[in-house]
Amino acid sequence: MERKTFKTFGLFASAALITAFSACQNKETKTTETKKTDSTQAVSSTDKIVFINQDSLLTKYEYYKDLKVKFEGKTKSAQSDMQAKGQAFQREVAQYQQTAGNLSADQRKETEERLARKQQELQTYQQNAGGALQNEQAVETEKLYDKVAGYLKTYAKEKGYKMVLTYSKGNSAILFADESLDVTTDVIKGLNAEYSKK
Questions:
Q1: Element (H, E) at 164
Q2: In the Cβ-directed half-sphere of 36, how many Cα atoms lie within 13 Å?
Q3: Which of 10, 55, 99, 177 is deepest in the core (most CB within 10 A)?
Q4: What phi, psi does 42 have (nearest 5°)?
Q5: Which helix (H) or strand (E) holds 163?
Q6: What are the phi and psi torsion angles at 174 (to 5°)?
Q7: C-beta neighbour count of 131 within 10 angstroms
Q8: CA-CA distances (angstroms) from residue 132 to 42, 64, 80, 125?
Q9: CA-based Rg of the chain, rounded to a whole angstrom?
């Protein structure tokens, strides 16, 4: 069984959170025309830009942690199931190999065809199980995205923030940011409070 068939939830969720953070301002972009002038308007000092540490959010957001545990369990269960089915098939093949000399040519042919069908069914089952798990993860990732993006939209509006960026160690467009712009703790607190109500 290929391990890549059953990816852990963290990979999906990480990508979703990166998108969620940057999407808060993109979803609400207005498409109004403005008159062109020779000078560009500078960002006002009252326009606030803040950032969230994605690594901290992934380790402290209770909803994400619950999803991660859920999908780790499902992945482990699916792997155990496939391993058990694979071992049962291998035992059946080994048993046939031991008794093949005692069977007639027709019996060997029939048994080999049956084992070939069973192997194909096992491969199809593995692909379907992996696909079903990935589809379920995709649905949950979308829900995670919606929760974070929805909360950040409200949070930014209440605080008067014009943009919410995301920071992740080793994968960030932010090379430097003043720590006073880090609202991660506040956002995690709000997300967890919202999640605990449900």
A1: strand 161-167
A2: 0
A3: 55
A4: -80, 155
A5: strand 161-167
A6: -90, 115
A7: 11
A8: 50, 20, 16, 10
A9: 26
Cα 5 from Cα 86, distance rounded (Å)? 15
pLDDT (tens digit, 0 to 9) for every residue of the chain, 198 residues total? 444 433 434 444 444 444 444 444 344 433 333 333 333 343 344 558 898 998 898 899 999 999 999 999 999 999 999 999 999 999 999 999 999 889 899 999 999 999 999 999 999 999 999 999 999 999 999 999 899 999 999 999 998 888 888 888 887 777 677 788 889 999 999 999 999 987
Residue 36 gets the label, from left (phi > 0), alpha (psi -120 to 50) or beta, of beta
Q: Which of 134, 129, 5, 9 is nearest to 67 (CA)?
A: 9
Burial classification of residue 137, based on how many CB atoms lie within 10 Å of its CB (0-12 exposed, 13-18 middle, 19 or more buried): buried
CA 85 to chain centre: 27
Report DSSP state, residue 170: T
User: What are the structural domains of the chain?
Assistant: 48-196 (3.30.910.20)
